[in-house]
Specification:
The protein is α+β, with helices and mostly antiparallel strands and about 350 residues long. It has one domain: Endonuclease/exonuclease/phosphatase (Deoxyribonuclease I, Chain A, 4-Layer Sandwich), CATH 3.60.10. Helices cover about 25% and strands about 30% of the residues. Strands 1, 2, 3, 4, 5, 17 and 20 form a 7-stranded mixed β-sheet that branches. Strand 7 and strand 8 form a beta hairpin. The protein is globular and about 60 Å long.
């Protein structure tokens, strides 16, 4: 039954690839997503981390119940991403702002996700607050082959002391038998201002580019997806000048990167908001083999910002913003201060 739900209806896809009305083709479709889950911390104080400063640890009453509700709210969103088209939750989803593997296990074991049988890939990073990235994948759809964590070493401009931030996670595996590579990112924040902190994200982009380059040295046609909360928009130097991500498919060279999020940003759409301005920090980009012609292997079909009505504040000062989980020292029963983003990958299935 689950496999039947992953077929994309012919009516939906024919308009995209301009098939003759009499032709009948079937396509498999999988959702690949990214979600900053806003401080998904457990209720246990870790003496090796500054997790006591997390919103969850600041809550004094009913902390355990609130934690369970936070996990369930995240599971609700993940179960819903891409389901309107694929009939399934994401085959692969990158996560940011997770404290440890335990919180991801609780997420994967939530009743809304348990039947999906999600596997987890996670490494502890050196971030002072204990914030990590991770990956969840449906075991019957994606089989990991290799996994590695890549440390970003950056230093304070004044003191020259090292700034401990999130590692970048690389996972290589087979999506329905096809080799793909996924990089999950959470680049340094804009604390101190965009200009003052820009060099840190440029350094993160350079690390990301080195990872991509290392895969393309082995195989110039490697199918690579890089995703994450970049704390930069598609037009900032880290993405535009370092990764050289392109808006138009025709301008992407061999070993180049296509960024479908640029069009959303140009239209004024975003995944997070601050001081009445939208940003599109959450992005998913793909290498050229994903956008070449033909559907004999998985190709990019469509990207999106998952901003369903229930994820949006309906009133007040932050009307229209993402409905976040934590505010004013308490739990709002919301979701995250970021909307998830996603792409659909499709492949023609021969009968």
């Amino acid at each position: 039954m689950k496999n039947l739900r992953t077929w994309l209806s012919v009516a939906l896809i024919t308009a995209f690839i301009s098939l003759n009305a009499q032709e009948k083709k079937k396509f498999k479709i999988h959702t690949v997503a990214f979600y900053n889950v806003e401080n998904l911390f457990d209720t246990v104080n870790d003496p090796e981390k500054n997790d006591e400063a997390s919103p969850m640890m600041e809550i004094q009453a009913d902390r355990e119940e609130i934690y369970k509700k936070k996990v369930h709210n995240m599971a609700r969103v993940i179960s819903d991403i891409g389901s309107d088209t694929s009939g399934n939750s994401p085959a692969i989803i990158g996560l940011a702002e997770i404290e440890n593997v335990d919180v991801v296990e609780h997420l994967a074991n939530d009743p809304l996700l348990l039947a999906k049988d999600y596997g987890i890939i996670h490494f502890d990073s050196p971030d002072r607050r204990g914030i990590d990235v991770g990956l969840m994948y449906q075991k019957d759809l994606f089989q990991p082959i290799n996994k590695s964590t890549h440390t970003l070493k950056i230093y304070d401009d004044t003191s020259r002391k090292r700034i401990y931030t999130r590692d970048q996670l690389l996972v290589s595996g087979k999506l329905d038998g096809e080799l793909i590579h996924v990089i999950v990112n959470h680049w340094p924040s804009r604390r101190g201002g965009e200009a003052r902190s820009r060099a840190k994200r440029v350094a993160a982009a350079k690390l990301n580019k080195r990872i991509i380059d290392s895969l393309q040295v082995i195989d110039p046609y490697a199918k690579i997806i890089t995703m994450g909360d970049l704390n930069d928009d598609p037009t900032n130097a880290s993405v535009k000048d370092v990764l050289k991500a392109k808006r138009k498919k025709k301008n992407v060279p061999l070993k180049g990167i296509y960024n479908p999020m640029i069009d959303f940003y140009k239209k004024g759409l975003g995944s997070n908001a601050y001081r009445d301005a939208w940003s599109l920090f959450d992005q998913i980009m793909l290498t050229k083999p994903f956008i070449e012609k033909g559907y004999d292997s998985f190709k990019f079909y469509k990207a999106g910002i998952f901003n369903k009505n229930y994820l949006v504040n309906k009133k007040g000062r932050y009307k229209g913003y993402p409905k976040r989980s934590f505010a004013n020292g308490g739990f709002t029963d919301g979701f995250s201060d970021h909307f998830p983003v996603y792409v659909y990958l499709i492949k023609e299935v021969k009968e």
